[in-house]
Amino acid sequence: NIFFLFIAIGFLSLISCKDTFEEDVSQDTVVLISPYDGYVSLSNTQTFWWEEIEGASSYNLRVMGIDTANNNQVLSLELDTNLTGNQFQYSFSPGAYQWGVKAFNGGYTTGYTYHIFYIDSSVDISNISINLISPSSDYITNDSTITFIWQEVYNATQYNFEIWKDSFSSGTLYNYQYALTTPSCIVTDIPDGKYYWGVQARNGTTTSSFSTLKLIIDHTVPDMPNLLSPAYGDTLYVSDLTAGNLVFSWSHAFDSGSDLNDSLLLSQDSLFSTTLQNVLLSDTTYTWNVGNYSGTFYWKVKTIDAAGNQGSYSFTYNFFISRD
């Protein structure tokens, strides 16, 4: 019997190993497509592209600034990021760079494959793309004062900064600051709305296009939710609940600002000094299994938007769960 027990355990172990098996990619080589080795670019924006490895779940992309006059000594780590796809775009200052990619999964990793490329230091900046650093894309805030920061552009002497409401260049120009000599500026007292901010680089002979990102300003406090079910004073019988599940539902008024989440509190104490449920939800329903509970319960909900504005709690509703 013990012999057969060991056989069974071994068989189950093999099944378990098979279930967690990761393909060995350690002997594979990542083939780099673009930029090719030795590439010289007049554009500071590069799209890195490589062939996918079968069995790999992710890739690590590294870009380093190098000194080609000193045996390609690494001067700086410009980029180090993990990706699930096989393309990535980034902008650089003029100079020499080495880029490399390795593939990996949960158990194995390949070595890096490297190429060298160069960003030409031409005074022509008409084809460059500016890295906008902060605020990030689709940033949502209830702060009225924003510090805008972007990466300095080599051979640029000035920057033009613009904020447009609703749509860049075709909406309403809200704020502009021209002939800036540093890669940042501050804008105060921005009202609620959807904005697009952009930066353009200039020198004595050429001008870049605007690089843009979206920004949402939302100072509006969400309205108080309206509780729907269970209603105030309801008596609920466990025998009427499907699998013992009680569904809470509520609604809130239309909000023209950022996305909404709701905080639900459930307690057997009307002061909510202790809670049975304290959950943050993206939906306006919540299912709670009553288990062995019975008696009087209290619940309330408040709304919080993506900008951090918090509304007031709803009126507190009580209901009674009966096991009879």
Name some characteristics of this structure:
five-stranded mixed β-sheet, 324 residues, 24 strands, 1 helix, mainly beta, 48% strand, flat
Question: Can you describe what's shown?
Answer:
The protein is mainly β. The strands form 6 sheets. The chain has a 5-stranded mixed sheet with strand order 2-8-7-4-5, with no helix packed on it. The protein has a 5-stranded mixed sheet with strand order 10-16-15-12-13, with no helix packed on it. The two termini are 51 Å apart. Strand 4 (58-67) and strand 5 form a beta hairpin. It contains 1 helix and 24 strands. The longest helix is centred in the first third of the chain and has 18 residues, at 2-19. The model is unreliable at 15-19 (pLDDT under 50).
Mean pLDDT: 91
Question: Helicity level, as a percent range?
Answer: under 10%
- Biggest sheet, in brief? 5 strands, mixed
In what range is the share of β-strand residues?
Answer: over 45%
| SSE succession | HEEEEEEEEEEEEEEEEEEEEEEEE
Low-confidence stretches: 15-19
Structural class: mainly beta
Structure described in brief:
With 324 residues, the protein is mainly beta.
